[in-house]
Amino acid sequence: MSRHTPLLQQLIDALRILPGVGPKSAQRMAFSLLERNREAGLQLGAALTAAMNKIGHCQQCRTFCETELCHICTDPKRALDGIICVVGSAADQLAIEQTAQFKGRYFVLQGYLSPLDGIGPQDLGLDILGKTLAEGQVTELILATNPTVEGDATAFYIAELCHKRQVKVSRIAQGIPIGGELEFIDGTTLSHAFSGRKVF
Amino acid sequence: MSRHTPLLQQLIDALRILPGVGPKSAQRMAFSLLERNREAGLQLGAALTAAMNKIGHCQQCRTFCETELCHICTDPKRALDGIICVVGSAADQLAIEQTAQFKGRYFVLQGYLSPLDGIGPQDLGLDILGKTLAEGQVTELILATNPTVEGDATAFYIAELCHKRQVKVSRIAQGIPIGGELEFIDGTTLSHAFSGRKVF
Ligand SMILES: [Zn+2]
Ligand SMILES: [Zn+2]
Q1: Chain A CB contacts of B97 below 8 Å
Q2: Are residues B41 and B84 in the same domain?
Q3: What is the DSSP letter of A164?
Q4: A29/B19 CB distance under 8 A
Q5: Would you tell me which of A72, A78, A101, B126 could form a disulfide with B121, CB atoms 3.0–4.6 Å apart?
C-alpha cells in the first residue's frame, strides 16, 4: 500500500481542512475510524452535513444560530441594562459567557474589517449594528475585539458609529496580551479586562 | 451563548471521536468550518460517509480496499519470492511500504489476539492466512507485529500455524523499541529491523 485507495485518499485530504490536522494525523484519524469506529464516522459525517447546511446566524446579534434569534437575544433579562458587547467571533463570545460576568447582549462580527481581503462594514453586519444604535435602547457598547491591527481598525470604526449616535462606548482593558487571540485567554484575565474597561 | 445550539453541540461531540481531539479543539474545528469553510465541511461530511460505507477489506490480505483485491495482491511481481509479511494494521503496512525495501505481499491483521476483548483468530482472519499457508506457495512468513504483549501473543500463534505447515517463519529484528508502536518508527530503523530478522 504505497498509495491509498481513492476513497481513503479523499478522506485523508478532507480531514486536513480541520485546523491543526497535518497529513500524518489525518491518516491516523482515517485509519482509526475505519478500524474501530465506522458508526461514529458515519455520525460525524451526518453531523457535519447537518451543521454546515442548517446552522445560520441570529438576525439580531449574528452569532451561530439554528433559529431566527438566539437564546440570548430572546432573553428579556439580557436587555435590562442596555449594554451590548461587540466580539470578533462566536468563540470569543463563548469565552466571555464562561466568565459569567457579563449580563448584557452581544454583537458577533464574525470577522474584522480587512479592505485587502474585501471585508467591509456590510460583511460584518455593521449596518444592522448601526440600526440597533439608532433605536436608542443601547446605553453602552463594550468593544471586546482582538487587540490586533484588524481588531483595532474595526473597534475605531464602531466607536465612530457610537459617537454619531451619542452612545457611550468603552473597550475592555488591555489586560489582554497585545497580539494575542481572545478565545485562548483564561477567564480571570478576561473578567479583569471587563471590569477595568475604559471610555474609548 | 453559555450553551451551544443542538446541531453545533452535536457536531462538537461527533468531532471528539477523532483521535487526539479534545473538547477545546473540537469546538475550534466546528467554529473554523462554520465561519470560513462550509463547503469543505460538506466535502468532509461526504468523504466520511463514502469511506465508512464503501471501504472494505482485500479478500486476500485484509488491508483496506474498495475492490475485491488490493493493488499489491493483484501485482504478480509481489508474489515472486513467496514472502508474506504479517502486520497489525494498515498504518503499519504503510510504514513498511514507505521503506521500499520489502517486495513481497502482506497479511494485515487489523488488530491483535485479545481474549479479554473477545478478539480471537477468526476475527483477525487467521483462518484465511492458514488456508494461504496450506496452498504451499509461501516460502517465508515475516512477523512484523508490534513488540507488545498482544503483538507477541499473536506472533506466537501465527508461528505455530507456520510450524504446522513447515513454512519458514521469521520476525523483524528487535531494533524496534520495546513497547513502541510500529507505525511511528522511522524508515531507517524499520529497514534495519527487516534485514536483521531472525528465524522465530
Ligand atoms: Zn442573537
Ligand atoms: Zn491484498
Answers
A1: 1-2
A2: no
A3: H
A4: yes
A5: B126
Q: At what angle do helices B38-54 and A6-15 cross, to 10 degrees?
A: 150
Residues B141-174 pLDDT 10s = 999 998 788 998 999 999 999 999 999 999 887 6
Distance from residue A104's CA to the centre of ligand 2 (Å): 61
A24 and B CB contact within 8 Å: no
pLDDT digits (tens, 9 = 90+) for B3-46: 789 999 999 999 999 999 999 999 999 999 999 899 999 999 99
* A42: its cell numbers: 458515519
Unique residue bearing C-alpha cell 448601526: A130
Pick from A121, A100, A184: which is nearest to A147 by CA? A184
Q: What SS3 state is found at B171?
A: strand
Residues A38 and A106 in one domain: no
List Cα–Cα distances, A50 to A3, A19, B40, in angstroms: 32, 20, 13
Helix-strand-coil percent breakdown of chain A, rounded to 5?
50, 15, 40
Q: State ipTM.
A: 0.80
Give pTM, 2 decimals: 0.80
B66 near A CB under 8 A: yes
CB-based contact A31:B90 (threshold 8 Å): yes
Ligand with the closest atom to the CA of A79: 1
Give residue A153's domain range.
79-171
Residues B87 and B147 in one domain: yes
Which residues, 6+ apart, have CB-to-CB distance to B189 below 8 Å? B175, B176
pLDDT tens per residue across span B82-108: 999 999 999 999 989 888 889 999 999
Lowest mean pLDDT among A2-11, A51-60, B184-193: B184-193
Within 8 A of B65 by CB-CB distance, chain A residues are 5
